Structures are given as C-alpha cells and as structure tokens.
C-alpha cells in the first residue's frame, strides 16, 4: 500500500482523485485521504509524500511529474531531480518529494507514479494538487478629493501580488459598503455599485451623505491588507457665484475694449505727420549727381558762397536741364525722395524717379 499526502505550513483542504489501474486484486496500493489539495503559504518548503506499503517488489521505481497548464514535465526521473526544481527539491525516503523556497509558480498538480514489476498491479499513481497562497500587499487606492453634488465618481482599488486573486471590499468611516446601495436601506440616500472582483466603487450621482473617509481591503485565503484612508468631499455648486464671476469677467473685457477704442480715436495709436521743421530730407538718391548753380559758384574775390544747394541733374541729361526736390508740402503718399521737378526752358515738368 502507498500513502499520498502533503506536509508544510498551513497544509489544509485537499481535493484528490483515485489512481486508475486494473480491477484485479492488488498487492500494491496507494493509501489516500479523502481530499488531496495542499494549501500553504509562500516562503517555506513543502513535503509531498508518496509512501509504499504491502509491495512484493523490494525496489520499485518512483517517478514524480508536474502537470501545469496542460503540460507534463519530469520532476524526479532516472534517480535525479529535473526541470525547474533541480536546485530546490530533493527526494526523501526514496519516495517523498521535498520542495524548498516555494513560490507561486510551483502551484500545479504533482503525480507520483510507482512501478513494481513483481506485483500483480505493476503501476499505481497518486495526484496531489499544490496551491501556493500569497498574502496580498497593501493595495493602491484612488479616491477623488472633491466632487460636486450630482456628479459621478469612481473609486479604484488594485493589488497585484496576492494569490489567489484577492477580493475587494470598501469602507466609509469604518462602515463596510454593500455591493449595491439599493440592497441596504442604510444607504438609501446613496447610489453606488461595488465590484468585489475588480475593486471599483462607482457612484452614479454623489450626495452630501457620501462625504467621508474611504479605504479598501484586499483579502484572500492567505490573508488581507488595506490601503490608507482617504477623504472624499461632496460640495454644492454655487450657481449664483458662477454667474456673478462670469458677469465680472465680461464687464472687465468691455471696459478694456472701450478704453482701446477711445485711445485709438484720440490718435494715441497713430504717428504724427511729418511737417516743415521736423521733416528731414532723405539722403542722396542713387543715380543723382548734384551740381552747383551759377549763383553758388564762388565769385572771384568773394569769400563766401551763397550756401544754396545745387539742383540735381538727371544722369545723361543736357546741361540745360535742372532738377530740384519736390516741395516739402507734398503729401506723404508720394515721398519727396521719389519725385523731382525738372526745369526746362519750355516749362516746369515733374519727373518721377
């Protein structure tokens, strides 16, 4: 007979299945408990027992296999540990399997197969389902600080380390919240729905009574953890204040616009016309040669000149042609620098440059 069991911290409920074999009388068998699913906490080791009794074979062959995600791999085969447990497992008493530093990845089905050639039932097996539990860590909670009355609000709670996946519960002012506010008369003034699988608490429309301190607890079979309390304030909208603020802003904008228009009409944004004394003749235009008139030529014996500027002469023109700059009173639309008056013997002609 063979006994299959498990030992380790928090060893508990186990769901098992009988080994399949011929219906003939057995000299070798595996003694089983009614259930064979081993639960334990993370960190410590675990021992999976496979004890043989009433066998006629002195040295039966033992094999351990790991079944995970529909794939079967060897754990103990050909008298040595194999696979991902090479450095973390050993065989005890020729049959039992000891796993050290158990992690969540070690959760799987472990099958002990016994081959006894001298027994009428040559092959028998036992299956142990190992579930490694991990206690949740403090979840991450997100709670809005302030929400106006009548608006929707969502509170979230997430935890990623616990195994199996934890369930979530929310508390307000240390009072547990139901999954649906409509199901509890105590929360008839609230309108929320709690999803314990995802950890979300959704308010379709918050009320003043929903203000308070909120926190979330994540829990599984290995333990529980909670986040810090966070305040959520529900406030009334001040419609009158909002309208008054909008009117103030519009009034300020109107005053600014009126001031700009008034300043523009008074000429604060228009440059003054250039006239007489303040006007300065432009520099010498390109292509214009200035000559001195007969009156400006110094008379012999005269120590001073007339001081008059010679009239410009158009390049290529005849000596009889004289030009002078347009008068200073010409409109600004025709700058003096581009207009000369030509003095011909036949009359006065304007020649643009």
TrEMBL record:
<dbReference type="GO" id="GO:0090022">
    <property type="term" value="P:regulation of neutrophil chemotaxis"/>
</dbReference>
<dbReference type="GO" id="GO:0033624">
    <property type="term" value="P:negative regulation of integrin activation"/>
</dbReference>
<keyword id="KW-1003">Cell membrane</keyword>
<dbReference type="GO" id="GO:0005615">
    <property type="term" value="C:extracellular space"/>
</dbReference>
<protein>
    <recommendedName>
        <fullName>Junctional adhesion molecule C</fullName>
    </recommendedName>
</protein>
<dbReference type="GO" id="GO:0045176">
    <property type="term" value="P:apical protein localization"/>
</dbReference>
<dbReference type="InterPro" id="IPR042974">
    <property type="entry name" value="JAM-C"/>
</dbReference>
<dbReference type="GO" id="GO:0001525">
    <property type="term" value="P:angiogenesis"/>
</dbReference>
<dbReference type="GO" id="GO:1902414">
    <property type="term" value="P:protein localization to cell junction"/>
</dbReference>
<keyword id="KW-0964">Secreted</keyword>
<dbReference type="Pfam" id="PF13927">
    <property type="entry name" value="Ig_3"/>
</dbReference>
<feature type="domain" description="Ig-like">
    <location>
        <begin position="34"/>
        <end position="124"/>
    </location>
</feature>
<dbReference type="InterPro" id="IPR013106">
    <property type="entry name" value="Ig_V-set"/>
</dbReference>
<dbReference type="GO" id="GO:0098636">
    <property type="term" value="C:protein complex involved in cell adhesion"/>
</dbReference>
<dbReference type="InterPro" id="IPR036179">
    <property type="entry name" value="Ig-like_dom_sf"/>
</dbReference>
<dbReference type="GO" id="GO:0031941">
    <property type="term" value="C:filamentous actin"/>
</dbReference>
<keyword id="KW-0221">Differentiation</keyword>
<keyword id="KW-0744">Spermatogenesis</keyword>
<feature type="transmembrane region" description="Helical">
    <location>
        <begin position="239"/>
        <end position="264"/>
    </location>
</feature>
<keyword id="KW-0393">Immunoglobulin domain</keyword>
<dbReference type="GO" id="GO:0042803">
    <property type="term" value="F:protein homodimerization activity"/>
</dbReference>
<dbReference type="GO" id="GO:0030057">
    <property type="term" value="C:desmosome"/>
</dbReference>
<keyword id="KW-0325">Glycoprotein</keyword>
<comment type="function">
    <text>Promotes chemotaxis of vascular endothelial cells and stimulates angiogenesis.</text>
</comment>
<dbReference type="GO" id="GO:0034333">
    <property type="term" value="P:adherens junction assembly"/>
</dbReference>
<keyword id="KW-0965">Cell junction</keyword>
<dbReference type="GO" id="GO:0044291">
    <property type="term" value="C:cell-cell contact zone"/>
</dbReference>
<dbReference type="GO" id="GO:0005178">
    <property type="term" value="F:integrin binding"/>
</dbReference>
<keyword id="KW-0564">Palmitate</keyword>
<feature type="domain" description="Ig-like">
    <location>
        <begin position="136"/>
        <end position="233"/>
    </location>
</feature>
<dbReference type="GO" id="GO:0005794">
    <property type="term" value="C:Golgi apparatus"/>
</dbReference>
<dbReference type="GO" id="GO:0005923">
    <property type="term" value="C:bicellular tight junction"/>
</dbReference>
<dbReference type="GO" id="GO:0098632">
    <property type="term" value="F:cell-cell adhesion mediator activity"/>
</dbReference>
<comment type="subunit">
    <text>Interacts with ITGAM. Interacts with GORASP2.</text>
</comment>
<keyword id="KW-0732">Signal</keyword>
<keyword id="KW-0130">Cell adhesion</keyword>
<keyword id="KW-0796">Tight junction</keyword>
<feature type="region of interest" description="Disordered">
    <location>
        <begin position="295"/>
        <end position="322"/>
    </location>
</feature>
<dbReference type="GO" id="GO:0046982">
    <property type="term" value="F:protein heterodimerization activity"/>
</dbReference>
<dbReference type="GO" id="GO:0005902">
    <property type="term" value="C:microvillus"/>
</dbReference>
<keyword id="KW-1133">Transmembrane helix</keyword>
<dbReference type="InterPro" id="IPR013783">
    <property type="entry name" value="Ig-like_fold"/>
</dbReference>
